[in-house]
Amino acid sequence: MQCSAAVDVLFLLDGSYSIGKGSFERSKHFAFKLCDALDINPEKVRVGVLQYSSTPRLEFSLNSYPTKDEVKERIKKLSFKGGSTQTGQALKYILRKGFPGGRNTTVPQILIVLTDGKSQGTVQPASQLKEEGITIFAVGIKYPRWDELHTLASLPTEQHVLFAEHFNDAVNGLYTTLTSATVCTAVPSGCKVVSRTCERKTLETVKEFKGTFMCWKGSKASTAPHGTLCPYYSWNRVYRKHQSTCYRTICPDPCDSQPCHNGGTCIPDGLEKYRCVCPVGLGGDPNCAPKLSLDCSVDLLFLVEGSSNVSLEGFLRYKSFVRRFVQAVLTPDSPVNVGLAQFSDDVRMELKIGEYRDIPELLQSIDGMRYRGGGTRTGKALSYVTQFGFKSTPVFADVQDDLPRVVVLMTDSRSKDSVTEPAKYTRDREIFIIGMGGEFLKEDLNEITGNPQRTITYSSPQDLLSRIPDLRSKICSVDSQGCLAQSLDLVFALDASDGVGNENFYRLRDFVRSTSVQFDINRDVTQIGLVTYGRELSTVFALDTYDSGTSVMQAINQVPYIGGRASTGRALLHIHDNVMTVQKGARPGVNKAVVVITDGAGGDDAAVPSRRIRNNGISVFVVGIGDAQRDALLKIAGSEDHMIPVASYEDLKYFEDVLVQKVCEEAKKAVNLCRPSPCMNDGICVLRNGSYRCECRGWEGPHCENSKFSCVLLEKQLVHNIIYVFFFTYVYL
C-alpha cells in the first residue's frame, strides 16, 4: 500500500509520564512504520512531528525534511520529554499555529494523535480542529482510555480510532480510512475493504463496595458524637474489553500467500505475478520446493486456530499454508481424506473428512473459511474433533475405510483451558496429533502430541510455509509406523520395583501406552501383552486378551504400581514359559519381540534367561533409564542395536519412535516357523514344505497339547462305565 498524493501529515506524540519511555518508543515505531507507505517529497506527502506533555514542543516542521529516509532517521532520534498529560494544550497550539511548514487549506490535513487518552484537561479543542476540516486519527498506546480517543477522533470513530500495539494492523486501518475518504489512493485496484469484529482492551481502576463499619459522627445540634454505619470501598485495577468494528484492506498481492518455500524470497511482479529467489540447491523449482506427493493412506484433519490471539493476519497465514500444502502434495490419485475445522471458544467443522469431489472443490472450501475471533480453547477443540471429526467417507466405495487418523493442530497461542487430558483422550483413541506453532509453544505442543517427533515449530511466521516438507514427512511416518503390514507378537516387561518408584512408574506406563498406540492391534496384525514385576510377578494381560487398540490403552491405564525388589531374569523366564506360548495366544509363524523397560537395578540375573529367549527366536529390546548398568543391560539385549539408553524418565517421550522403528525392523525379517517352537511338552518342531509339524513324545495333538496317558485312562474309565451299565441292566431284567 502506498499513499502518493498532496497530503500534510502531522504526528502529535504523547510524551508524558503516564505513557512512559517504553510506550513512547512504540509510538515512534508506529510513526516510523507509517512512513514506509508514504510518498514523502515536497510535492506529495509532507510529514511533521509535535511532542507534548506539560507543554507542546515542535520536533520538526512539515517542510524540514524532503525525503522519506530523512524523516525516518529524524523520528528515530526523538527523545522522551516527560511531564503531565496536557492534550488540550497541544491541540490549542495547533489551532493557533496551524500545521508548521504545511501548505494552504486546499491540501488535506491529517493529524495523528498517539496517546493513552488520559489527559489532565479537556480535549474540547479537537472539535474545533475537526470543524476546520482537519482529519484526526486517535491511536491508542499502552492501556488507553477509549472514550477519550473516540472524543478526539473524526467520524465515523470506528474508522479513525486505532491501536498502536498492533503496528501492521493499525497502519492498514489508517490507510483503509484514507482511501475510503479519497484523501489518497493508497490501495491498488483489485483490493477490497472488509469489516470484522475486534476487541479493544484497557486497564481501568474500579471502585468496589466492600461493606460497612461502625463509625462515630458529631453534629452542630449535639455536643456528643453518635454511632452510625459508614461504607468502605476498595479500588482495583481490572482489564476491560470493548467490542468494536475494524475496517481493513485485503489485497491480492501474489506474495501474500508466501509461495516461495525453503527460505526463498518472493518478489512481486504486479498484482498477479511473482518470482522466487531461491537458496542454493533449490533453484530447480519456480517456488524453491522439491516435488512432493502425499502417497500414504490417512484420514487427515486440519484443526486451525481462529481466535483473537492469532489475529486476522495470522489466520490468513494458516489458510495460505493449508492451501499451499494441498496444492503441493495432493494429486487426484492421492489415497488421502482431508477435513477442515476452525476453533476458538468452540469448534466449527468447515469441511468434513473426505466430503469433496476433487482438489479444486477442496481448495474452494479452504478459501471459504472465515475468521471468527474469540478465545483459545484447544482442549475443548481436541475433544470435539476426537468425537465428531472423523466420520470419514471411504477412499474407494467397495473398501471399508480404516485408515490411520491424523489431526494437524495449527495454533500460535496458549490455551485458556487444560489440554493434558483432552490430548491424552485423543491419543488413546488411536488418533495421531501433529502440532504446529511458534518456537515459544514447543513445550506445550510436545505435551499435546505426546511425542516431540510430532511437533513442528518455526521461529517467525514467515517460516511457516517452509515447513510443508516437514509436515508431509511426519504425516507419512504415521502411516508407516506401527508395522501395519507386518504381523507381530509383542510383550512389554515393565519394571514396577522400588528402584523405579511410584512417580516414575507412571511415566513408564505412559511410555508403553504411547508406543502401543502406534501399532495396528488386532488378531491378524499386532498382538500385545504386558508383564509387570517387582516384589510380585504379574501378567497384566496376555497376547490374546485384547483385539483392539482401545482395549489395550484402557488396560494399560489401569496397571498398578507394585514396589519391592526387581528380578528381570525371573520376569523373562515367566514370559518365555507362560506368555510367549501357543496356549496364551502366541501365533506360529509370527515374529516375536520382548521390550524390557527398567532402570537396570534388577538385571543381574537376566543374562541366561534372556539368552534362552533369544535362542528361541524371540528378539529382546532393552530401554534403560538413568544410570542403568550398561553391561548388564547389554547382556540382556544381546547387541548394541537392541539397546536404547535414556538419560532420564522425563526424556522417555523422545524415544517412542526410536523403539517403534527398531521393533518394526525386526518384524519385517524372515520368519522361522520353528523358532520359537510352537510345539508344547518337549515336542520337536520339524520344517516341511513351507510348513511345520510337531513330533510328540507321550503327547498328541497338533502342538503336543494332549497327554496320551490321560487319554488311555479316559478310555479305560469309559469302557468300565459301559460294562457297569450293561451289568445292572441285565440284573434288572
From TrEMBL:
Q: Which domain of life is it from?
A: Eukaryota
**Among its keywords, does the record have DNA damage?**
no
Q: What PROSITE patterns does the record tag this protein with? A: EGF_3 (PS50026), VWFA (PS50234)
Q: Which Gene3D superfamilies match?
A: Laminin, von Willebrand factor, type A domain
Keywords, ordered alphabetically: Disulfide bond, EGF-like domain
Q: Tell me where in this chain the VWFA domain is found.
A: 8-178, 299-475, 489-663
- State the protein's name: VWA2 protein
Q: Where is the EGF-like domain?
A: 252-289, 670-705
Query: Where does this protein come from, organism-wise?
Result: Polyodon spathula (North American paddlefish)
